[in-house]
Design a protein that fits this description.
single chain, alpha+beta, Glutaredoxin, 4 helices, about 40% helix, about 10% strand
Length: about 80
């Protein structure tokens, strides 16, 4: 099974992660998610496979998260 990275080339964390994967002599499949956004079904599948809460997937740092009031929302199952 290969590695897939949902990548944003403008994001330092994403670039660093891609570099770590490549330093392990692995060439992942790269999906630039801003150009090819995942479907809701794919996001639900990925979150389930990661075994994390949906809220844990949200990035807060460097985003308009705080200003939008998203921190007060409840996520429906």
């Amino acid at each position: 099974m290969g590695i897939i990275i949902y990548h944003n080339p403008e994001c330092g964390t994403s670039r660093n992660t891609l570099g770590l994967i490549r330093n392990a002599d692995i060439e992942p499949q790269i999906i630039e998610y801003l150009n090819c956004p995942p479907t809701r079904a794919l996001l639900v599948d990925l979150i389930g496979r990661m075994n994390i809460a949906r809220r844990d997937l949200l990035r807060e740092k460097g985003t308009p998260f705080s200003e939008s009031g998203l921190g007060t929302w409840t996520i429906r199952q």
